[in-house]
Specification:
five-stranded parallel β-sheet; seven-stranded mixed β-sheet; globular; 17 strands; alpha/beta; 23 helices; 48% helix
Length: 569
Amino acid sequence: MSAQKRLDVIGAIRHYVDRMVKGRSGMAALLVDDETMGIVSMIYTQSEILEHEVFLVDKISNAHRESMQHLKCIVLCRPTVTNVTDLCRELREHKYSEYDLYFTNAIPEPLVSQLANADEHSLVNSVQEYYADFYPVTYECFSLGIRSCADLYLRGEEATLNRVCDGLCAVLLALKKRPVVRYQASSEISGKLAHTLSERMEADHLLFDFRRDAVPPTLLIVDRRDDPVTPLLLQWTYAAMTHELLTIERNRVNMHDAPGVRKDLREIVLSPEHDVFYKENLQSNFGDLGENMKMLVDKYQNKAQINQNIDSIEDMQRFVEEYPEFRKMSGHVSKHVAVLHELSRLVQTRCLFKVSQVEQDLACRESHSEAYRAVQELLEEPGPSSADRLRAVMLFALRYQREATQSNELSTLLDTLQRKGLGEEDLGLVGCLLRHAGNGHHSRDLFDKGFFKAARKAMKKSVRGVENVYTQHEPLIVQHLDKLTKGKLSESDYPFHGQARPAAPGDVIIFVVGGATYEEAAAVADFNARNRGSMRVVLGGTDLINSSAFLNELRQLQSASRARSWSSS
């Protein structure tokens, strides 16, 4: 195990795209669908594509492309009925000289027959399956890009379940793993997914016929409802904080709302594959991030013999603006200065150190009366946003669900939220959270002392403007990984699907129905670093969520619940 490389989902996707665009001669066009466009863009830049003589990238659905017979055509798409219909039209119109078709998952035989019938001019050179049906977020974390699981929770929607199963199969095939499957017993959805996936692997056993490991890998399927605390907490590592406060969408950060941002920085790409500074700092905490940037600016100052005091994030911002040659020399770093400046502004204006301390105490300390008083005080602060206040009340309601509902504390806090401008829909999300992910949905006591470690890890103070904060909370998956390492993860809480009962696995894939978080991705990266040579872990989720996405999921559940109530009345 010690000589093995990490499980690398970025590398798996890049391997497939490399094989598509390399080793062929002549100019080419690349046709993609909405999903594969995003997947390819996360691991290949436009300039890299051009280096391989791919001069056009377009959507399969575009029926108005010009005929370009001097170009060959590479197609990468999901094997859906819609995509195959578009491909059949494309083959009949034969706008390119020849075609190589790559599907991101197993393509059903009837769809292959449709393509064969449409290839009237015998232009298709090859039809292959390249299992690139997921979004590689970091080297150890992937997403399926499924924005909502509300229909899965409410109706067990088969289409969504099958899409999740497709994505998981692609991940396993790309990593060349056939795992034993474990799932959260308290989650009907996790059990159903485990069953469907196991059946799929058995039916396609030839696809999964890899060299067997001495101890088979484990796929652990869990439900977001088992740990609703993690997505409600403010985050302080670079990637997690950026996703929470600005949102990262397929490696892109929208900076349009940042005051005074330069035009060329209104959309920023953060990719560990193409940005060394981001790769080295995506798990750095807020304080270390500022310090690392300051060191880089200081290095340039010394080289250019520029004397200018830089003690704060604002100083760095001014320096980058005044010395454009630094922007050129530092490459990607000027965009990180802009992101850090905006994060710092939001932290200050929304009093996020105060908000975070209240959240962490709610998650990790047992003091009912102090917690109630702290939340009351936070709601009266002028800085926090409506969402910040709502999250604090939600955490209080989860932590003290029985006490808060039996007394008038929760209703008092809701009244305060209403007075602060929150509408009925948002106020109703607190009750929706308790119904969706409160007591009864967890595999154990959510705030068990054995679950959350109370040890505080202080973040370093690096430059003025970056205060100390405490990050006490650990996601539930940390507990899972520690127990898996020792072979002690409860079989009653997380049973095996089937008869296999292997020892502690060497490779683990954890998949979160309802979405994983960057905090969990950081925990997995830290676990891998500490356990190199003994266990390798990859984290995935239906999506990679922040608190806004989690609240939007609750809104959809609440809306659907009301619709059902009206229809039955």
